[in-house]
Amino acid sequence: xxxxxxxxxxxxxxxxxxxxxxxxxxxxxxxxxxxxxxxxxxxxxxxxxxxxxxxxxxxxxxxxxxxxxxxxxxxxxxxxxxxxxxxxxxxxxxxxxxxxxxxxxxxxxxxxxxxxxxxxxxxxxxxxxxxxxxxxxxxxxxxxxxxxxxxxxxxxxxxxxxxxxxxxxxxxxxxxxxxxxxxxxxxxxxxxxxxxxxxxxxxxxxxxxxxxxxxxxxxxxxxxxxxxxxxxxxxxxxxxxxxxxxxxxxxxxxxxxxxxxxxxxxxxxxxxxxxxxxxxxxxxxxxxxxxxxxxxxxxxxxxxxxxxxxxxxxxxxxxxxxxxxxxxxxxxxxxxxxxxxxxxxxxxxxxxxxxxxxxxxxxxxxxxxxxxxxxxxxxxxxxxxxxxxxxxxxxxxxxxxxxxxxxxxxxxxxxxxxxxxxxxxxxxxxxxxxxxxxxxxxxxxxxxxxxxxxxxxxxx
Length: 460
Fold this sequence. Notes:
Blueprint: H1 13-25, H2 27-33, H3 45-61, H4 67-77, H5 81-96, H6 102-131, H7 137-148, H8 164-167, H9 181-186, E1 196-201, H10 207-220, E2 225-229, H11 234-246, H12 257-264, E3 273-277, H13 285-297, E4 304-308, H14 322-339, E5 343-349, H15 370-374, E6 377-382, H16 385-390, E7 392-400, E8 407-415, E9 420-422, E10 427-428, H17 429-459
Parallel strand pairs: 1-5, 1-6, 2-3, 2-4, 4-5
Antiparallel strand pairs: 6-7, 7-8, 8-9, 8-10
Helix pairs in contact: 1-2, 1-3, 1-5, 1-6, 3-5, 4-5, 6-7, 10-11
């Protein structure tokens, strides 16, 4: 037997009449509640019967029936004349019920259904915990998340001709700049919330440098940034940011302490820049999400997350194929940034062939190529030995869903010590290839000329 606090009876008869009226007449509201409302939530057997007919009709036709259709269904499926009369009488009341307070009725009923779904989810979670099945932690989170999302309106479905004025606004994306002009120009100002960018580079090229620079630039523009890293000492990351603000190299900051502190006093903005070091062998994207939620509960609100780097995050569950797990991690990162309304920047390690490449391409990403497929933007960084010595790099936008890709910034200034990156020069991939072909032709020509000189010399 269901007690009053487990059905709509505690809200009164009139509420239940209004609720059934709303489910029949408001198609949008019906779509939000129909899957989670149960006939047993009504305290009258005829209300329950009407609700059951509505749910069955919705299941077959993906919409709620009209009052005329319900009349016909009642005549066909309800054999008792007394039951038919009672249903017809109640349908008349439901049909003429006042539209007043409809928003309150909808909100109250959705909250009730959400509470019931949450109770069911907690029971499932308790069963998992009682069994000690801690490997199913992600399943627990899924149960609770689904229960909390009951009645949430989907904003994903959009008629292509709706909200055209908003779609045509110049600033519809609201991007956050990277502070690297060539990249910002090609990304229409940077990345916007819900978008993720990936820097692809071999070991020791400067992934942490460029990610720290982007985090620093966002903070300077009054945004709130969370920078998560796994491999560096927090003081090293702090000093990188100090270098950005003071133009004093990390190794000189101790001896110039007074000057550093004086300059830093002028660098505070309205934003926040939170640094978080996490272990590199046990962190899942679920752990990171929970970490952000805790920080938010403490009064922080983030606009950007910088994750240094994605290869240090392990899958939330076991996969038979390691590459599938890597793709799942990147997909979780994208989902988290969308759900939490964040700009997401991260980095991925290049494979062995990327170490000696003049230009690193997407197929040189270490591990699963799915990491590249998920990212909105993939930017590669390459350094030859000579470029490293001269503080230069070749940066290429290898993929972009936002703007133009296939652009190469050759021999950019890329100073790891001073965190200075300047994309003054640029070429397309085609231009790079043509340049290589021309160099090869020049080498052949020079070799032939040397050979001809040797032959002529021997003749003389």
